[in-house]
Amino acid sequence: MTAPAGPGHRPLKVAVLGGGPGGLYAAALLKRLDPAREITVWERNAPDDTFGFGVVLSDETLGGIEHADPVVYRALQAEFVRWDDIDIVHRGRTLTSGGHGFAALGRRRLLAVLHERCRALGVRLRFRTEAPPAAHLARDHDLVIAADGVHSTTRTAHADVFRPRLTTHRCRYIWLSADFALDAFRFEIADTGHGIAQLHAYPYARPSPDLPQALHPVRAGETPLPSTTPQRHPHPSPARPGASDGGASTVIVEMREEVWRANGLDTSDEHASAAWCAELFADTLRGRPLRTNNSTWSAFRTVVNERWSHGRIVLLGDAAHTAHFSIGSGTKLAVEDALALAACLREQPTLPDALAAYEDERRPVVASTQRAARASLAWFEDLATYTAQPPHQFAFNLLTRSRRVTHDNLRLRDAGFTDTVAREAGVPDGTPPMFTPFRLRGLTLRNRVVVSPMDMYSADGDGTPGDFHLVHLGARALGGAGLVMTEMVCVSPEGRITPACSGLYAPEHERAWRRVTDFVHAQAPGTALGVQLGHSGRKGSTRRMWEGIDQPLPDGNWPVVAPSALPYRPDVNQIPHALSAVELAAVREQFTRSAAAAARAGFDLLELHCAHGYLLSGFLSPLTNRRTDAYGGSLAGRLRFPLEVFDAVREQWPADRPMTVRISATDWAEGGTTPDDAVAIAAAFAEHGADAIDVSTGQVVPHERPDFGRSYQTPFADRIRNTLGIPVIAVGAISSWDDVNSLILAGRADLCALARPHLYDPHWTLHAAAEQSYTGPGAPWPLPYQAGSRTPPTGRTDAPKPRLTLH
Prior knowledge:
Number of strands: 29
Keywords: Monooxygenase, Oxidoreductase
Domain NADH:flavin oxidoreductase/NADH oxidase N-terminal: 434-769
InterPro entries: Aldolase_TIM, FAD-bd, FAD/NAD-bd_sf, OxRdtase_FMN_N, YqjM-like
Distance between the termini: 54 Å
Region (Disordered): 210-247, 779-807
Protein name: FAD-dependent monooxygenase
Number of helices: 26
Structural class: alpha/beta
């Protein structure tokens, strides 16, 4: 029977597997909270054995340590090296952004502080001792904390319970150290002759105070920033054991696997590898060598577990989750895990309750960090696609790569830097990037905001848009967006998703849509209105979303068609008819008739819907296209019919009006469309005359597993834009004007499409302008609404403060 965890019960007997920072700190906290607990840490290495060199901790993590254990906090505070600047070296130029705030110390010193604290509290430390299996320890311990790292034997032994997902990534990296202290966090890009490599480096030990501090000469090719860049304020710390008197810096060198192999590093030992890296980055290292410490080239592995506990066993730190080193969160997460676990054991009445509360508390925080880490990791994997960017845009792109640092908070940290980036990009002074114009063929959009296509399921039974569409689209057009898109407008009755979906296949449809375009052009001049044409394919003949998404109609179902006879949901949706070559020609003609009607109806832009599992998307995905004729098989075959439709529509659509294509850049399912496929699909449509690619993802198969999160789809748009050099529209949980500014200024997208924010607030764009104090041509308020262009006053907040307080 599991022992209770709360106060007043028998003290816990705890085994900790792994003597890294997370395991040691958990042991110290648990012992401090209840000195009667019997706690043993098992570590197979010697006390001073460690891998890597420096550790970065955030102020947030340090605050948690300070509240939980002031003794450890004071010991760490005395050791930290602090700095504010990030240097980015690219093509011979060094650009500096200030105001960031970092703290680091040597990993060996961190472990020594935790060893000392554990011993002082009475924790048993068993070094050079292989721990018994967690299941064996659980027989006579109340709690077993598996802090045994990324290669956790505990996680492997109980994989059927924890259900880990391990993803190995495409770069190789090596941890090294330099025997001097850099004065900033440094990123540097170097050409190896076989591709590029990048350096990530930061100080973790300051020079001895009695040494001269002139260790930072001006570097060759360094370009000073404007005088608004904050001055550096180093915080000297005494020399540490294991570091030279001149301080020390962590140096990580990383490159794509194929670059690593081409340079012969796959056959180099650690000393030869260190010498190669020192030569490549000789300027930054001032000709000095690099130190090793069991330094091997590794491929980063992302660890995600479906469960973190099993009976009395709980995972902590890298055993439970990993986050790429480029955001410096590995040790931070492990320490925060320890804080949360100790708190939950104190607060909850039983051990199962405590472990459940621990996971509930930590899982969303870890998931958010892992999303940021994956975005950062992917950015560095695809680094070669960004190296042609202008220097300041490249630097801004690097700094905002994880989506945690944004345009707005970077501007707060270093306004001079962000203003320089904007000037280099041609953004007028005083203009947020989102309010700069953008041209597509003969259409100039006054800003970069798009109201994304959203199915409203509110048309008349025959597909005719009515007053709802006039008010819905008219309100968003008055709200200031540069481009407002209709929902998917269907090209035939059987091409509708539901009976309430709008169409453009009958004369009354054309007249109804003309009413909407006339209103927008007259009442919201400068706003463009786009139409998205599509065919539901196998996802048709279903109920409206709020009546049961993707569920068949209770009666009146019509036959559905698709590339192959595969139902969307087996045993739920009907089996579609696989279209013959003759039937494909008829569908193509439906698209062309609708395109001609859309032109007559006055739309400014046409988008072809090739995403989300609808008919044309169904041809593109190998999961939904199993054809053996010319319209299936290879990607070129799967592209054939969508390109035929595109060409036919482009021929009908006026030459001066732009055409875009929406694609699903990944199916989020094994065996489906990959990001590489998406680049090839986008390139094919661009070659056929698409003016921009609207990059969405998923909704192709019901068993998809999307990686949801803020701006989670934008990396796919980013990759297409920076690989092919074609305009893209980014979509996917872009919810703030700060996100839009960041994406545009970093060069990851040309336009940003937002859906739910425009349902919440039809005037989202105008309010974004007001919140940024922008009043220029990119967001003019309609004359009848100008009185509302300022934020309304709220309740009184300036009441007089008390003049006298009596005690």
